[in-house]
Amino acid sequence: MFERRYLPVVVVVLVGLLAAVVALWAIDRGTMKPSSANANNATSSEKYEWKLVTTWPKNLPGLGAAPENFARYVEEMSSGRLSIRVYGAGEIVPAFEVFDAVSQGVAEMGHGAAYYWKGKIPAAVFYTAVPFGMTAQEINGWLHHGDGLTLWRELYAPFGVIPFAGGSTGVQMAGWFNRELRSAEDLKGLKMRIPGLAGEVFDASGGTAVRIAGGEVYTSMQTGVIDAVEWVGPYNDRTLGLNEVAEYYYYPGWHEPGAMLEFTVNEQAFLALPKDLQAIVEYAARAANQNMLDEFTARNNESLRTLLASGTKLRAVPEDVLQVFYNNSLVALDALVENDPMAQKIARSYQAFAKDVRAYHEISERAFLNARDKVLPPVNLTGQ
Ligand code: CA
User: Fold this and answer.
1) How does pLDDT run across 6-64, given as a tens digit for each residue?
2) How far apart are the CA of 132 and the centre of ligand 1, in A?
3) Which sign does the torsion angle of CA 384, 253, 259, 217 carry?
4) Antiparallel, parallel or unpaired: β 161-168 and 260-266
5) By C-alpha distance, which of 188, 192, 200 is closest to 176?
6) For a disulfide at 236, which of 45, 197, 232, 365, Cβ 3.0-4.6 Å?
7) Degrees to nearest 5, angle at CA 235 with 232 and 237
């Protein structure tokens, strides 16, 4: 038998065992939620506050709307359990330090363009734009129903960063020039703000590519630091007032046929979220991604009409210039993947998808646009 002094201990143990049995029974009947089971699977009421740093000036329409929309979607879907505050370039870190800030946990999230990190991760350019590459519709297919996103996550994994598609502008414009481009000869000595792989193409084509963040392109053009600038397209370019500092507006955006933005998330911060908040982050990013393309599609037309009415001169990039750009793009791509097995793996996936989708788009997208043009009256870009 046991001594009387042990009685209280035995009672406590027995009560504890009974409570455990009742709890297990209740869990089995679904009347009680397991409180100490895997916390990630439970819906907790814990609140999270995140910082999201961007490469854009605060409240920039278009590109800068995506992080604001994303934060609002997350707030609404999580009933405020995950609250995300958006910071413009320079508020916490400068534009070109967004990736490092997310990697180091200075901020839980970032919004920007992957090709800004080309110096650190050359293959990142595939996730913004490849000259003469895929359109927004095609890239979204590759990312979400091909290998694109999986490879992107593999590419950023060594930095503890998880990428999500963060919006697309659709086909951009080739940019603003303070003089006319009549042939490839006119590229010589031209200084242009043009990032990513296209910057290398521009260098190889006789010009000089300059790296400038969005907040500074207007002044750089105005003060003659550069002679030409590509930014986005009519809607966003008009917002920056680029028509005030250059006369000629060239199309099409050979260099950014479907420029894709990115949301980046610090891996540790993401893994610390309950599963339902992780899902909310994933789907809010997906919604913000599509919404950007929708907005540019809706607003570019009117903005272009306004620009043309205010004196902007619209010009097509001459064919010989396009050919020079294309030839140099092949060289730049070869140099990019040389000695970089991960870049080779991404390039193979990108190019195989692009080839397949292009073949089908010949008889779908292009064939339809051609067919529509045959039967509808011609369009006038000035809308008159
Ligand atoms: Ca651009």
Assistant:
1) 555 545 444 544 454 444 444 444 434 434 344 455 567 899 999 999 999 998 999 99
2) 14
3) negative
4) antiparallel
5) 192
6) 232
7) 50
CA 237 to chain centre: 18
Range of the domain at 144: 45-169+259-296
Residues with CB under 5 A from ligand 1 (ion): 172, 230, 256
Give the amino acid at 161. Answer: V
Residue 222 predicted with pLDDT over 50: yes
Residue 268 in any domain: the answer is yes
How many Å lie between the centroid of ligand 1 and the Cα of residue 281? 26
- pTM equals 0.86
Ligand 1 centre to CA of 168 (Å) is: 11
Number of domains in the chain: 1
Is position 88 within any domain? yes
For the residues of 102-131, what is the DSSP string, one character each? HHTTSSSEEEE-GGGGTTT-GGGGGGT--T
Q: How far is the CA of 363 from the centre of ligand 1 (A)?
A: 29
Measure 94 CA to ligand 1 centroid, in angstroms: 19
- Does any domain span residue 118? yes
Query: What distance in angstroms lies between residue 159's CA and the mean position of ligand 1's atoms?
Result: 25
> Which CATH number belongs to the domain containing residue 75 in this structure?
3.40.190.170
CA of 167 to the centre of ligand 1 (A): 13
Residue 313 is assigned to a structural domain of this protein? no
Q: Measured in angstroms, how far is the CA atom of residue 298 from the centroid of ligand 1?
A: 18
